[in-house]
Design goal:
By secondary structure, the chain is an alpha+beta fold. The protein contains 1 helix and 11 strands. The chain starts with a helix and ends with a strand.
């Protein structure tokens, strides 16, 4: 009888207790929801503030930039080469390098200012050298020399008022002309005779 009574009491009280627990939990959640929501909003606001603070923090960094310094072409005279000839020294001509150092200010990840710290050539350029010939070309010409045949069947230049560059005169005639006679006989016979001998 006792066990049967206890079973009946459980069948009555357990559903009642469950109902009370559900009602109590619902009531608690209903009254606590604004508090929880406010707490969540507060945390979200703080996270937003922290993010904005981090994005607005200024910090500085050193940044290095490099650029080429172009080489120049230098022309030099070479007296051993004929005029108009050139020699290109292909092994020369290399660009240099310039290094610029900046102090860069960032706000978050955005660059807001930069200041040049140093600027200089760290590698000098090597000039490109081209040699140009300055040696004059030799002059080639043929001098016209009128001649006559003397008594020895030799071709002798005729007397002239100006000496030939390719012959040496032997006498100066009285009229000022130059004679190239190989012997004294007949020298300057048509030019007033011999004035002086060489």
């Amino acid at each position: 009888m006792k066990n049967k009574f206890t079973r009946k009491r459980l069948l009555v009280y357990v559903p009642i207790a469950t109902l009370i627990l559900v009602i109590a939990t619902g009531t608690l959640l209903y009254f606590r929801a604004p508090v929880v929501k406010a707490r969540v909003n507060h945390l979200s606001y703080r996270a937003k503030i922290n993010t904005e603070f981090l994005l607005n923090i200024k910090h500085k960094a050193i940044k290095t930039e490099k650029s080429l310094v172009p080489y120049e072409t230098i022309y030099r005279d070479d007296p051993l080469m004929n005029m108009g000839e050139t020699f290109d020294a292909l092994s020369t001509g290399r660009d240099g390098e310039r290094t610029i150092v900046f102090e860069v200010t960032y706000r978050g990840e955005k660059e807001v200012a930069r200041k040049e710290v140093s600027n200089g050539v760290t590698k000098q350029p090597e000039p490109h050298i081209v040699y140009e010939g300055t040696k004059p070309e030799p002059e080639y010409y043929t001098e016209y020399v009128p001649t006559y045949i003397n008594s020895f069947d030799e071709y002798i230049p005729k007397p002239t008022q100006k000496p030939y560059s390719s012959y040496t005169p032997t006498a100066i005639c009285n009229d000022g002309s130059y004679s190239y006679s190989a012997n004294a006989s007949g020298t300057c016979s048509k030019h007033g005779g011999v004035s002086s001998w060489y």
